Amino acid sequence: MVIKVYLASSSGSTAIKKKQQDVVGFLEALKIEYTPLDIACSEENRMWMRENVPGEKKPTNGIPLPPQIFNEEGYCGDYETFFDAKEDNQVYAFLGLPPPPGSKEALQAEQVPLQNGTDPDQEPEDTPQEECNGVENGESEELAGEEAAEEGGEEVAGEEEEDAELADGAELEEDAEEAEEETRKEAGEEEGEEGEEEEDVEEQEAQEEEDLIISEDEEELRELEEPEEPQSEEEEEAPVTEEEEEEGADAEDEEDE
């Protein structure tokens, strides 16, 4: 008997990856040989899995999701039924395999009384696989339903939590971008104000320098336009006295003679 586990190696769903790892890891822990069949890389594997999953195990859209477990050509179940069997220590019965001697499942099988006229010591391979699965899982149907509901609730809660984390991360990124944009705007406004202040200072200095040059030019122009004051006679002619007149007259008489 070969256990076949149909998987999707390139699935983008975190929940599907977790379920596949759970199934494979548990089979490896029990040292149960199995064959993984990848439906992502083989269209043949995909179509075979879809065609051989019973209709009642398919979702509403008719496309079963991995992991799906088979024993040769017989269908064992999906992840939910595998999880229920694991919780009830009925994995070997779920897979249609005889439990190893001394295991919990073997001890439980010894304690189970005759059910439906079946001897518990009878080899599991003598009983059809689907009937065996139905007998073993019939007693825990109600408990399995509750656990499946809890598992479904946990998955939904996990997906909602992931969505909330993604939304929070997106909001944080938006807040960071807005804060960065605001910082850039403030920095640009400060640079603009500093530039305006520098321009005002430069204009003021240029105006002061221009006023100084104009003042110097006006001063030089005024100095050139002011006429030179005429020099005042230092000494005015002194009045002629009578003696000087007489001396002058005598001189003139002598000249006549």
Which helices and strands appear, and what pairs or packs with what?
Elements: E1 3-7, H1 14-29, E2 34-38, H2 43-52, E3 68-71, E4 74-78, H3 79-87, H4 91-95, H5 104-111, H6 129-138, H7 141-225, H8 242-256
Parallel strand pairs: 1-2
Antiparallel strand pairs: 1-3, 3-4
Helix pairs in contact: 3-7
Descriptive notes:
The structure is a single chain. This protein is α+β, with helices and mostly antiparallel strands. 61% of the residues lie in helices and 7% in strands. It has eight helices and four strands, in the order E-H-E-H-E-E-H-H-H-H-H-H. Strands 2-1-3-4 form a four-stranded mixed β-sheet, sandwiched between helices. Strand 3 (68-71) and strand 4 form a beta hairpin. Helix 3 (79-87) crosses helix 7 (141-225). Residues 232-236 have low confidence and may be disordered.
